[in-house]
Amino acid sequence: MRMKPSLVLAALAWPLLAAADCGRLEQISAHEGQVLPFAVSAPTAPARGISLVLLAGGHGHVGLDAAGCPTQLKGNALLRARPLFQARGYEVVTLDAPADYRGDDGLAGFRIDPAHAQDIGRVLRWLRGQGAREVWLLGTSRGSISAVNAAARLSGETAPDGLVLSSVLSTSVSARKSWAGHHVFDLPLDRIQQPTLLLGHVDDSCPRSPPSGQERVAQRIGASARTQLISGGQGPVSGPDACEGRSPHGFWGQDADMVDATLAFIESRPR
């Protein structure tokens, strides 16, 4: 039986992440003088002049090595898809955690902190200084909280030109650590004015990111927000793995579909 092209690309993308040239490692000074590393990966097709900043989920500490390659969270949907974005002409920026948030909890409650938004803004300003015509934030799962934090608080050259939020955390859960229950409604969503795509999967069974939650988030943001659901893939996953990368929550087996939806939205914006 022949595999769908999207499944073939998804199967290839993750191994390529480790084998491919991940780009160059950069560092800037963040809050309180902390070091904030990120990797800049050049497009492998004619450049569009647009930078995509990837905000991974989970604890958010991707563990960039000296070559700019992630050593952690490599199964995250956005990190898996990096080569696919590059192949469409986009510069891809993989943001790591600052030096003081690399423990077991990673970014933890810092995701909703104004200082985290300002750190992201420093990276966006740096990219514009390097010639980026547009800079978009792509946040998935817990990364959606970081993206919303930045878009809602920043302005001018530190603010993103647009957002793509996938598997958005829109509901709370009971947890031993209070920050584990954070979601995008903890932030001033109504301040977001940039074009925003809320991308989900119809079979996402993670209790933190129900597909129905997208509409609630879009209503709070307002007219600039759009929603889209992807179907297919391996079907629902239950239990603890429902919120992990190898599930509909992480668009497992559908990296190409996720990339197509993301870039169709970005490329539809008037310029």
Which short descriptors sum up this protein?
271 residues; alpha/beta; 8 strands; 28% helix
Provide structural commentary.
This protein is of the alpha/beta class and 271 residues long. Helix content is 28%, strand content 18%. It is built from six helices and eight strands; from the N terminus they run αβββαβαβαββαβα. It has helices at 5-19, 77-86, 114-129, 142-153, 213-221, 255-267; strands spanning 24-29, 35-41, 50-55, 91-95, 134-140, 162-166, 196-201, 225-230. An eight-stranded mixed sheet has the order 1-2-4-3-5-6-7-8, with helices on both faces. Mean pLDDT is 92; it is low at 1-19.
Structure summarized in a few sentences:
It is built from six helices and eight strands. The chain has helices at 5-19, 77-86, 114-129, 142-153, 213-221, 255-267; strands at 24-29, 35-41, 50-55, 91-95, 134-140, 162-166, 196-201, 225-230.
> What's the Cα radius of gyration?
17 Å
Uncertain spans, ≥5 residues at pLDDT below 50?
1-19
Structural class: alpha/beta
Give the biggest sheet.
Answer: 8 strands, mixed
Q: Distance between termini?
A: 43 Å
Q: List the helices and strands in order.
A: HEEEHEHEHEEHEH
What is the arithmetic mean of pLDDT? 92
- Number of E-type strands: 8
Give the overall silhouette. Answer: globular
Strand content: 15-25%
Helix content: 25-40%
Strand order of the largest sheet: 1-2-4-3-5-6-7-8
Number of helices in the DSSP assignment: 6
